[in-house]
Specification:
Oligomer: single chain
Bound molecules: adenosine-5'-diphosphate
Strand content: 5-15%
Strand order of the largest sheet: 1-2-3-5-4
Shape: globular
Distance between the termini: 41 Å
Radius of gyration: 20 Å
Number of strands: 7
Largest sheet: 5 strands, antiparallel
Number of helices: 11
């Protein structure tokens, strides 16, 4: 049967840069709620159709089945080339809303550990299945009704969206992007996601964006990274000076020592700071992989991660 005829569309849940999202339920079972993400397909995709690469990516995602990854149940098109993703419905907001709601929401280092553990399990699962996320950030971590978090928005929408429309306001943020991408690395891998996870970790602790470049551009991002971590040099990152986008610095900030990090992140203890520093290592070869992150002593050190039912929720 036609996939789209299996659902009854309800109210709009929200709208984003690339998509409108609706609540819907199964015709066969009205208690089964889903979210239908209707992607505003750009002119290029309209004319040439949706690329095989993107469709292959979707097929991949449909097979990723993990408790901390949003479930993609189905994909269908309406009209000419409109694309609809049928997703698990997660109406409890996202991690960014909790981080930003400083007047109503408080959380503990044990809560941070619990959220980060779920994020790292999701990230490792993706990498073990040869999928990179590439856009991990707090607003892509949706909260389920049991309190767990689920990694969403696999850059799918972006590959179909109109390249000219997307730059209006509410642009794609580069705050979570690793240095190797600013230096235009030819080959990159799972370590790009680990950097983004490190940024989320730091943001959860400080309740502020780690690298909030403003104005938000690549030059200011590299400046912020140098200022907060240290300047990339041949010493700390062999080969960096030969990368395409590398600019020889006029001033070299030495790598920040552990005490510097402790001053800002002591809430997660020495072990937490040790892990954070290793997730935000400049050289992607030295940076921990998601698998290595999961083996770090932080997870078994005190305090134990909070239970799902004890995690804070939207007020
Ligand atoms: P875009 O990819 O265009 O930025 P988003 O994924 O941010 O779109 O979705 C826009 C809005 O729709 C979100 O802010 C959220 O309110 C809502 N939304 C998205 N996905 C879901 C979902 N699975 N369940 C419930 N609401 C969702």
């Amino acid at each position: 049967a036609q996939e789209r005829q299996k659902y009854i569309k309800g109210r709009k849940l929200g709208s984003g840069q690339y998509a409108d999202v609706y609540s819907a339920h199964l015709v066969s079972d009205p208690t089964q709620l889903v979210a239908i993400k209707k992607i505003k397909v750009g002119a290029e995709a309209k004319e040439f159709g949706i690329s095989y690469d993107s469709l292959r990516e979707i097929k991949f995602l449909q097979e990723l089945d993990h408790p901390n990854i949003i479930k993609l149940y189905a994909v269908f098109s309406t009209k000419s080339q409109n694309l609809n993703l049928v997703l698990e419905q997660l109406p409890q907001g996202d991690l960014l809303k909790l981080i930003q709601d400083t007047s109503n929401i408080t959380y503990t280092p044990a809560d941070i550990k619990s959220w980060m553990l779920m994020l790292m399990r999701a990230t490792h699962f993706c990498h073990a299945n040869y999928v990179l996320h590439r856009d991990i950030k707090p607003n892509n971590l949706l909260i389920a009704s049991d309190g767990s978090i689920k990694l969403a928005d696999f850059g799918l929408a972006r590959s179909f969206a109109d390249p000219f429309q997307k730059m209006t306001y509410n642009t794609v943020t580069i705050w979570y992007r690793p240095p190797e991408l600013f230096f235009q690395a030819q080959y990159y891998g799972g370590k790009v996601d680990v950097w983004s996870c490190g940024c989320v970790f730091a943001e959860l602790v400080a309740r502020d964006v780690m690298f909030r470049a403003w104005p938000e551009n690549e030059i200011n991002m590299v400046k912020m990274i140098c200022d907060k971590i240290g300047t990339p040099t041949e010493d700390n990152w062999p080969g960096v000076s030969k990368m395409k986008g590398y600019v020889t610095p006029t001033e070299v900030v030495p790598l920040r020592p552990k005490e510097h990090w402790m001053a800002q992140f002591r809430a997660v203890g020495e072990t937490g700071v040790d892990l954070l520093m290793k997730m935000l290592l400049l050289d992607p070869r030295k940076r921990l992989s998601a698998e290595e992150v999961l083996k770090h002593p932080f997870w078994t050190a005190e305090p134990r991660p909070s239970r799902l039912e004890d995690l804070p929720r939207k007020g």
